[in-house]
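for the recovery benchmark. tokens below, seq after
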């Protein structure tokens, strides 16, 4: 037993010497002062030779030099040794840059022992320190329960379930053939919050660092599982590493969103029935719960900062906008407890290389009327949805069909000018019919159209007159405010600060509306459509003030407070509900920075920050200070999908709030 113990100690000492050489190199042999520390580490904590004995230090140095003489590769860096090992393994048909396998031994349902599938799957690994290399992924299975345990996740009946502790592992499996080093994702997460670093910039830096051509053609990419090639020869492995050595921006973006979603779910204990393979679907499922958790944590914030209890500062930031489907004048937001409706258009992201989203592509088009003289054709830029075909007639120029559009207009359109999907329906004698559905997402209730499925009744169009957006009948749509409808001069201000008239192009949103406390904590935000209209600002503020946590709010600080106050005291809505009555009595004050732009005498007397004693010592520019940082994300968000955009805004604002809280505790 004594000999075994001595052998074990010798092996441990040899391993420790190897670790020292790989960590700090062989230069320590020239420095006498640090030799006792290194000797104690190599020989273990029980070693008693930690002193000033020159003889002992000389003996230890001699042992290290002998080890270096017999094993000269100890001088090599760990990186070089790793490259030699992985190259040797590839030359023999193995991908051994890492072994990715679940630590679970028993089935999570029946508790029986899992069996290991001995056939490895090749995985491309993007490492923070070693660059791109190949590894092997092994699967453990329970045939009785149809469960497959993978590294960081498990599947059952082709549905993916994330192990929330996978964020603590060394890698994140973004796809079945791609793994990203968690350290790489952590580095990016920090740079994202601090400097709004775009995905493309970080990926290009990675590719340049590891001597790959950043202009190289990208490899084939898909986030959904596909049929895998069998790669078990050195030539196949070499070909794969050459094609996939360059980190693709889309791969990294998907990996980061998966990493961030795991962090968020762990942080807020958010359950998910399963995790879709598609990133957009995954974020769509998560964002609703994430928003609720965000509001629950930050929505009722109140601290000892002056004004934090009774003041809300709000403002819109148009720079954080994203592209949307061109199908406008379709669907609207209905604010709870209010009569106002806001026409939003389709909020979804257009398909790649198209102007419409997947739902409306082939069913929407610019409004036209082919039954009028040519000079009057296509004078409008509206892109409504075609709801139904009312009738048809045949002329010498061909067949014309009478269409009902989503804005309640009717027109005759030649068959050749119809979208392709509608032409296909006509060829198969199928009906074009829509129904209205009510959708509640991210604190908003929205009414939108969707096509009837084959299982639904198709005998008649399930639409009421209130479901169709008629721009002539619907007063409260984007760009129109009550200030232009009332004759009383009290409602006509000389200030040029009205934001409702600054309408964004129909291909993008109008940014976000942020609600913030004077201490800098963001308590809510919402997307704006079309423009920063008072209908939307008032509606979102009304929704916020309905919460119990804001019953003590007395002052609203806003850069266009004069128009918002006019909107709130309008008799047509001020007495409608308890919250609207409260809003009509509240103080609406312009922030100090923008007050100089207001010249109307009514603004100066009613919305002057100098006349509001509650604003003493209050930072009224917190939104502008926030936007100085948040606007840096505009280059990233411009082309983001809807749910990627919402998740990113939640994620970065959530971290902003945490940074504000930490700063207050210092």
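predicted aa per position
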């Amino acid at each position: 037993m004594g000999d075994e113990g001595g052998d074990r100690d010798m092996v441990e000492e040899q391993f420790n010497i190897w670790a020292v050489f790989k960590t700090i190199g062989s230069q320590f042999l020239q420095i006498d002062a640090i030799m006792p520390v290194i000797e104690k580490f190599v020989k273990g904590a029980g070693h008693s030779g930690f002193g000033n004995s020159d003889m002992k230090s000389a003996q230890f140095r001699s042992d290290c030099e002998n080890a270096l003489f017999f094993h000269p590769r100890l001088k090599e860096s760990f990186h070089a040794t790793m490259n030699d090992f992985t190259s040797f393994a590839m030359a023999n048909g193995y991908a051994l840059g890492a072994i990715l396998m679940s630590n679970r031994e028993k089935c999570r349902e029946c508790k029986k022992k899992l069996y290991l599938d001995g056939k490895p799957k090749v995985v491309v690994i993007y490492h923070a320190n070693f660059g791109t290399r190949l590894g092997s992924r092994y699967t453990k299975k329970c045939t009785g329960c149809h469960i497959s345990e993978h590294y960081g996740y498990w599947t059952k009946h082709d549905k993916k379930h994330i192990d929330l502790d996978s964020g603590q592992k060394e890698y994140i499996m973004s796809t079945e053939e791609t793994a990203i080093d968690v350290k790489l994702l952590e580095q990016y997460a920090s740079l994202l919050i601090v400097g709004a670093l775009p995905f493309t910039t970080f990926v290009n830096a990675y590719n340049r660092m590891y001597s790959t051509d950043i202009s190289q053609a990208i490899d084939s990419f898909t986030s959904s599982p596909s049929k895998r090639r069998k790669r078990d020869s050195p030539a196949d492995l070499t070909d794969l590493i050459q094609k996939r050595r360059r980190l693709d921006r889309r791969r990294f973006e998907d990996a980061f969103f998966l990493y961030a979603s795991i962090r968020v779910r762990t942080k807020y204990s958010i359950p998910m029935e399963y995790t879709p393979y598609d990133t957009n679907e995954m974020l769509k499922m998560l964002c609703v719960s994430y928003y609720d958790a965000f509001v629950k944590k930050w929505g009722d914030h109140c601290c000892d900062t002056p004004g934090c209890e009774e003041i809300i500062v709000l403002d819109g930031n148009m720079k954080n906008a994203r592209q949307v489907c061109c199908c406008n004048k379709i669907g609207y937001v209905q604010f709870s407890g209010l009569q106002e409706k806001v026409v939003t258009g389709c909020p979804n992201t257009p398909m790649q290389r198209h102007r419409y989203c997947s739902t409306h592509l082939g069913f929407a088009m610019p409004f036209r009327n082919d039954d009028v003289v040519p000079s009057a054709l296509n004078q409008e830029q509206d892109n409504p949805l075609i709801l139904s075909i009312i009738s048809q007639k045949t002329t010498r120029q061909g067949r014309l069909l009478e269409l009902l559009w989503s804005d309640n207009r009717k027109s005759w359109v030649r068959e050749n000018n119809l979208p392709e999907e509608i032409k296909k329906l006509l060829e198969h004698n199928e009906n074009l019919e829509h129904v209205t559905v009510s959708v509640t997402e991210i604190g908003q209730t929205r009414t939108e159209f969707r096509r009837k499925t084959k299982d639904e009744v198709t005998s008649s169009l399930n639409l009421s007159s209130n479901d169709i957006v008629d721009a002539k009948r619907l007063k409260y749509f984007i760009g129109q405010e009550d200030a232009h409808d009332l004759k009383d001069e009290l409602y006509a201000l000389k200030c040029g600060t009205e934001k409702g008239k600054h309408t964004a192009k129909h291909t993008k949103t109008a940014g976000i509306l942020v609600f913030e406390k004077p201490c800098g904590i963001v308590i809510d935000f919402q997307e704006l459509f079309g423009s920063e209209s008072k209908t939307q600002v008032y509606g979102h503020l009304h929704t916020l003030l309905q919460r119990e946590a804001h019953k003590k709010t007395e002052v609203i600080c806003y850069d266009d407070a004069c128009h918002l106050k006019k909107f709130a005291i309008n008799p047509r809505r001020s007495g409608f509900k308890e919250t609207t009555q409260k809003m009509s009595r509240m103080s609406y004050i312009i922030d100090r920075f923008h007050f100089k732009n207001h010249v109307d005498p009514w603004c100066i007397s009613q919305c002057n920050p100098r006349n509001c004693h509650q604003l003493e010592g209050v930072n009224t520019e917190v939104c502008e200070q926030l936007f100085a940082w948040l606007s840096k994300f505009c280059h990233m968000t411009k082309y983001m999908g809807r749910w990627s955009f919402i998740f990113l805004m939640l994620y970065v604002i959530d971290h902003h709030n945490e940074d504000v809280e930490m700063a207050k505790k210092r």
